[in-house]
Amino acid sequence: MQIKTLEPYASPKHKMGFLCDWRVTMKCNYDCTYCGGHDNRQAHPDKELCLTMLGQAMSYIDTVMDVKKPRLRSATLNIYGGEALYHPDIVYLLKESSELYKKYSHKWSLTRLLTTNASCKEDKWKEVVKHLEYVQFSYHTEGPGKLKENFLRNLEVTHKSGKRYGGIVVMYPKNWQECVYMLKFMQKKGYNIQPKLVDGPTGNYTEEHFDDLRKFWPRLSKELTDKMQNVEIIRRGRACCGERLMCINRDFKHPAKFVPQPNNSYVGFNCSANQFFLMADSHTKSFYTNKDCRVTLDGKLGALATSDTMDDYISSLKSKLENDSNTYLTCVQKTCICGICAPKSTSIDELKKVMKVYNL
Ligand code: SF4
Ligand code: SF4
C-alpha cells in the first residue's frame, strides 16, 4: 500500500496536544554505562539562558495555540536532561515556570512533566513537585546506594500525595537480580512502575532473563517482541511512540498501530510537526522541531533558531500563521522517528483537510 496521507486516529481520548521537550542540562549525578543521554564533561547551562529559552518555548506554544481549536489547546512540557534535578537552579527554574505560565493559563492548559532519577533530598523534592503536574520516575541500578534510597522515598511520598506519576525500572542485564528485586518490591507497594528494556549492545538479554520477567509482567511479551524485531521493523515501518492508532490515507474504519512505510521515510511529504512539537535545548542554546526531527521551515536539516534569534523566529511564524495557518514543513529527513504521528501528506491540499480537525 502506498501511503499518501498519515494522521493520528482522532478520538476524544486520544487528542493530539502539543509536546515541548526542554533539555535543561547534559550533566547527571549518575553515570549509567548504557546511557547516551548525558555528558558529565559539559557545564550546566546558565540559569538565565534556561529561563530565556523557557519563556521563548512558551511564547512559541502560545503562537501555535492561537490557530488551534479551543478544545485542543493543551501542551506538555517535558523537562529532562542529563538529569534535570542536578541543575543547581532547577527549583528556581520550576518556580519561574509557574510565573511564566500565568499569562497563558486562560488560553491553554500546561502539564509540566519531569523525567527524573528522583535522587534529590526530600526538602528539594517537595519544592520541585509543587511546580509539576506529572512525574516520570526512572530507577537506575547503577546509581549510588544513598541516591537510590532517595528515589524510593520520593516515589513513596509522590504515590501517597495523589500526584500523577509513572515510572520505569531500567532492566540492566548486568544488575539483573537487583532490577528484578526492585520491580517486585515496587509492584507489591502498588506503585505505577514498569520494566524497561535497555537498547543497544548493553541490552543483551538471555532467555532466562525473559523467563524471569514473564512470570510477573504480562505486558513484557509486547515490549519484547518489539525489541527483538526492532531492526527489522524500522526497515518496514514504525508505530507511534505514544502508542496512538494511526489512519492511513484517511481510512478511519481501519486505524493501524503499525505504519508500513519503507525505511520509515517521509521525504517530500508536507508535515505539520512544527504545529505539534518543539525542542528547547539549553545545552546547545538551540531550538529544534523535536528530539528527533531536525527539519526546518526552509526545507533544511538543523536548528529552527538559537536563543538569540528565537524571538524573531516566533514573530515571523506568528505573522505567517495569521495569514495562513497552513505553514508546514517539507520533510527532508531520511528517517522519521518521533514525529510520525504529526499529520502529513504528499498533497498540501490533503494535509489542509486533515488539519481542519485541529486548527480553526
Ligand atoms: S540517570 Fe538517566 S541521564 Fe543519568 S546517566 Fe543514568 S540514564 Fe543517563
Ligand atoms: S522527520 Fe520530521 S518533517 Fe519528516 S515526517 Fe518526520 S516529523 Fe515530519
Short descriptors:
360 residues, alpha/beta, TIM Barrel, 9-stranded mixed sheet, 5-stranded antiparallel sheet, 10 helices, globular, binds iron/sulfur cluster
CATH level-two architecture: Alpha-Beta Barrel
Number of helices: 10
**Major pleated sheet:** 9 strands, mixed
- What share of the residues does DSSP label as strand, in percent? 15-25%
**Silhouette:** globular
Between the first and last Cα atoms, what is the distance in angstroms? 32 Å
Written account of the structure:
With 360 residues, this protein is of the alpha/beta class. It has one domain (15-236, 277-312): TIM Barrel (Alpha-Beta Barrel). The chain has helices at residues 47-65, 90-102, 122-129, 145-161, 176-189, 207-214, 220-228, 230-236, 310-323, 348-355, and strands at 5-8, 18-23, 74-80, 109-116, 134-139, 164-171, 193-197, 238-239, 246-248, 258-259, 270-271, 277-281, 286-288, 305-306, 329-330, 344-345. The strands form three sheets. It has a nine-stranded mixed sheet, sandwiched between helices. Strands 9-1-16-11-15 form a five-stranded antiparallel sheet, covered by helices on one side. The protein is globular, with a radius of gyration of 21 Å. The protein starts with a strand and ends in a 5-residue tail after the last helix. The model has no long low-confidence stretch (mean pLDDT 91). Residues 28, 30-32, 35, 37-38, 81-83, 117, 138, 140 line the site of one iron/sulfur cluster.
Itemize the secondary structure elements and their pairings.
Layout: E1 5-8, E2 18-23, H1 47-65, E3 74-80, H2 90-102, E4 109-116, H3 122-129, E5 134-139, H4 145-161, E6 164-171, H5 176-189, E7 193-197, H6 207-214, H7 220-228, H8 230-236, E8 238-239, E9 246-248, E10 258-259, E11 270-271, E12 277-281, E13 286-288, E14 305-306, H9 310-323, E15 329-330, E16 344-345, H10 348-355
Parallel strand pairs: 2-3, 2-12, 3-4, 4-5, 5-6, 6-7
Antiparallel strand pairs: 1-9, 1-16, 8-10, 11-15, 11-16, 12-13, 13-14
The chain binds iron/sulfur cluster (SF4) (2 copies).
One iron/sulfur cluster is lined by residues 266, 269, 271, 273, 289, 293, 295, 329, 331, 333, 336, 339, 342, 344.
